[in-house]
Specification:
Blueprint lengths: L2 H28 L8 H22 L2 H5 L3 H10 L1 H8 L3 H9 L27 H20 L4 H10 L9 E3 L2 E3 L1 H16 L9 E5 L5 H9 L4 E6 L1 H14 L5 E2 L13 E5 L11 E7 L7 H14 E12 L17 H8 L2 E7 L9 E2 L2 E2 L3 E8 L1
Parallel strand pairs: 3-4, 3-7, 4-6, 5-6, 7-8
Antiparallel strand pairs: 1-2, 8-12, 9-12, 10-11
Amino acid sequence: MNRTIRDIFATFIRGGIIQYLDLEVSQTKASNYLKPEPADLDLAKLIIDFYHASKNLENSSPLKRTLGPSNLWSNKIEVNHKNVLNACLNYDFKELAQILKNVYRSQSTLGMTYPDAWNIPGSSFHRNVFSKLRVTRTIMGYKKKIAHSSNNELIRELFELLENDFGNPMRIDLLGKRVSFEAVYHALILVDLNQIYPIKDLKGKNIIDLGSGLGICLSLLMASSQDIKCSFVDLPENLIYASWFIHNYCPELKINHGLHGKIYDDECDVNLIPYVGIENIPNSKIDLFINTFSLPEMEKKSSDAYFKYISEKLSDDGKLFSFNRRNTLVHGKGTVDFTMIGMQELIDESGLFHLTKEVPIDESFSQNHDFAYPDTNAQIALFEKN
Ligand SMILES: C[S@@+](CC[C@H](N)C(=O)[O-])C[C@H]1O[C@@H](n2cnc3c(N)ncnc32)[C@H](O)[C@@H]1O
């Protein structure tokens, strides 16, 4: 029997069955709602104001036509964010606070990346045995990698932060902590980044996560490092979550929501910027752009325009960290309903960047690379300006 298949079998027999049953139990628990604490209400009010200001900015900006979301993303948002958006539109801050407090468990959102969708009632992953098997396998993969790297200081540090795990219903026990799958995944992306851009070298630097999604990755990075400035750039709908996570992971930071006239404020530690506000970021000031599973999912005209912005905003020795599909083919099956042009193809066509470093996929912490999911098309890479 091939070694990889043997490995997978062994993993399942060693603990996968228990892990699978554990998922079942936590999925049932996930449908329970927690009560919000009063402390969340002020943040919910702020987030609702921020959402409306971001939508106004988006709707009045000519950039919406070039940079705006594809149908894929508009549809995804409509379905996955329905409850959150209704709460914002109705100025129902109590409801928003309650949903955000339970962000990992309620029918609020997620579905941004594959692992999280499994616990959303009604999602294609929910109650789907195969998706739960995939989740089980991924958790077992994480357990194995983490056990082998038990002396990895960064992993330990990040797991200390994950203990906060706001609203986490899932019982994934790793390194003696009960952590959320979604947050572990983002923490491990940082461990991948650290292999080609040491996180300690980010001291004093200015970072942007473009298409930051829930914002967990950058929030964890900010919480684990000092003296970094950062910006989240995304659609107004996803910045709702970024605001929630950065406030919870880094309550002491000065965070700008653009509500006082400045879309980008140099004086603040953190800027939350609706995508059409990207032009307000000063040129040549950014040391690192992060882009994970995002640029290739946009319309080609949007990603082309974003590449120009990235190259303008980056300092001369700035870097672009990309974790995306390398080529257009998706798992050898051709394109799916997304645009999904490979990142390397987009980069080559732009003529603006070149590859400097890569993490081999079998050395990645966040990705599984095995018989069941031979994702040879994932590229974890650092690019520099030409
Ligand atoms: C697959 S998610 C990845 C999120 C996050 N980077 C992660 O790894 O979990 C893609 C992200 O791109 C954002 N996005 C899609 N179209 C966009 C656009 N035209 N401009 C800015 N962000 C966009 C989505 O809102 C979403 O947050």
